[in-house]
Design a protein that fits this description.
- By secondary structure, the protein is an alpha+beta fold.
- It has two helices and three strands; from the N terminus they run αββαβ.
């Protein structure tokens, strides 16, 4: 199932406490998807995450 990411979805995820979308598969995968995730310290996470990973910050 594929869902198009919209501002309404991002607002809903933020209201539920999610602050990032993590890339959850290989760049070689044909179908790619993101998983909503809650990080307690977003700034620490942003300073430590791999620059090679795809991550969308909701906040």
């Amino acid at each position: 199932m594929t869902i198009t990411l919209t501002i309404e979805i991002l607002k809903d995820l933020k209201s539920k406490g999610y602050n990032i979308l993590k890339f959850d598969n290989s760049v070689d995968d044909v179908v790619q998807h993101f998983v909503p995730t809650k990080e307690n310290d977003l700034w620490t996470f942003m300073g430590e995450f791999s620059k090679d990973s795809a991550t969308v910050v909701i906040e």
